[in-house]
Amino acid sequence: MVYEQSGIKLGPEKKLMLEGRLKRRMANLDLATYGDYCEYLFSGPGEEVVHLIDVVTTNKTDFFREKAHFDFLTTRALPDLVALKAPETC
What we know:
Layout lengths: L1 H5 L8 H15 L4 H10 L4 H9 L10 H19 L5
Helix pairs in contact: 2-4
C-alpha cells in the first residue's frame, strides 16, 4: 500500500524503523496495536494515508549543513558566478 501510494519501497530492513515511527502515530491516535492502526487506516478518514506517508518518509535536508558545502560555495560556485557576471572591461 505504501508503495502504491508513494512509490516508496520498504524492505524487511526497514521494519524496526517503521515500527518505531508508527508507534508514535498510534500513540497520537490512542491506538494500542498495529491491527487497530490498520483498521483505522483502511476504514477511518481517508486523510490518514497522508499521515502514513509522512511517517514513512525521511525528510532530510543536508544543503548548507556541512562545512564542505560552504567551502564549495566560496571557493568554486561564487567565483565562477562572479566571473560570468563580471562587466566587460574596455
